[in-house]
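hey
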């Protein structure tokens, strides 16, 4: 069936950073989906002027607006629209403010979908980093009650919001969609459908992934080792290589050992990671001048995706009896950085007289 002949679906993208805007535009571009976007801070600007998108996939797009723009998820839930696909592209910070956790973000639209049509399928698509991120959703929403399909999106892209309503995409958009539970046949079919809807030939790539958990572990090689290290030391990747003792201690003392530990944890979950990926990631990032997302977050006083990138794999390692000295050192040091950020944001309070956290 051609895209033009398919029934139009409603999709909402929650999270209008560089990744979310490109995700929404890719869905919009094919003409199959009615696309809604939750924009929050840019709402007034986007309503008046739309988005300026400088994209390696689509060229320069001026004054683009999705079909519907909402300032909050609560506004979207009040629009009396059933969203077939709820796509989350926000940062995943379960240890952050309670109203910004994934389940809190999802709650209004999942519940409004249920009220509008409890028998219709709701696809929740987490286009986010990390491992085991679906567990938070399952802990708060009974799949059968809400008729949920849980889909995973693993995205490779370089896209940044550089100003209000202004996004620059320098790296091509490549997304793998799959079911978190690869034995869930309904979710598998929905993932295949979304991949077809998302893919725009000659522009981006949307593909079905029959083992998306393995793909998440593969991406974790980079995120758990390189992303975290740059956040800890406040350096771009190239300087992490060049500033090292004999220009090799960062790679062989931190990056590669951390990656090998991730591979060992994955193996304890019966997931084989190709050792060539360790070589690939080190060589790929060595000569690219950029700061990974966690480093940028720390520099801008934002909380990091610490728990889903390091906390979750380390907890799996402990449960499976896998030793992770490098990852644990990175994690324990970054907990201090995370709590420093939380104190700055007044999320926690330290009493300098008692030298204790105020509970």
């Amino acid at each position: 069936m051609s895209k033009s002949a398919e029934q139009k679906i409603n999709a909402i993208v929650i999270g209008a950073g560089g990744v979310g805007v490109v995700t929404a535009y890719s869905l919009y571009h094919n003409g199959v989906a009615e696309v809604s976007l939750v924009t929050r801070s840019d709402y007034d600007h986007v309503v008046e002027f739309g988005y300026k998108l400088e994209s390696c996939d689509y060229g320069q797009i001026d004054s683009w607006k999705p079909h519907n723009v909402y300032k909050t998820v609560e506004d979207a839930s009040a629009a009396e629209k059933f969203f077939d696909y709820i796509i989350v592209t926000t940062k995943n910070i379960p240890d952050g403010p309670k109203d910004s956790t994934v389940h809190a973000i999802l709650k209004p639209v999942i519940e409004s979908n249920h009220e509008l049509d409890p028998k219709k399928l709701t696809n929740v698509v987490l286009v986010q980093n990390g491992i085991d991120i679906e567990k938070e959703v399952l802990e708060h929403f009974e799949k059968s009650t809400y008729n949920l399909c849980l889909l995973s999106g693993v995205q490779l892209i370089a896209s940044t919001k550089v100003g209000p309503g202004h996004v620059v995409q320098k790296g091509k958009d490549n997304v793998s969609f799959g079911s978190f539970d690869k034995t869930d046949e309904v979710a598998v079919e929905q993932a295949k459908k979304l991949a077809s809807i998302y893919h725009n030939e000659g522009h981006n790539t949307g593909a079905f992934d029959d083992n998306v958990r393995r793909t998440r572990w593969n991406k974790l090689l980079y995120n758990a080792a390189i992303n975290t290290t740059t956040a800890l030391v406040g350096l771009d990747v190239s300087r992490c290589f060049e500033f090292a003792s004999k220009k090799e201690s960062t790679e062989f003392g931190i990056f590669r050992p951390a990656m090998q530990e991730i591979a060992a944890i994955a193996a304890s979950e019966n997931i084989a990671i190709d050792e060539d990926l360790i070589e690939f990631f080190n060589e790929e990032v060595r000569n690219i001048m950029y700061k990974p997302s966690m480093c940028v977050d720390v520099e801008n006083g934002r909380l990091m995706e610490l728990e889903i990138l390091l906390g979750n794999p380390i907890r799996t390692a402990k449960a499976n009896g896998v030793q992770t000295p490098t990852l644990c050192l990175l994690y324990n040091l970054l907990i201090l950085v995370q709590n420093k950020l939380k104190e700055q944001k007044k999320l926690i309070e330290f009493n300098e007289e008692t030298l204790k956290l105020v509970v």
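The two ends are 59 Å apart (CA to CA). The chain is about 45% helix and 20% strand.
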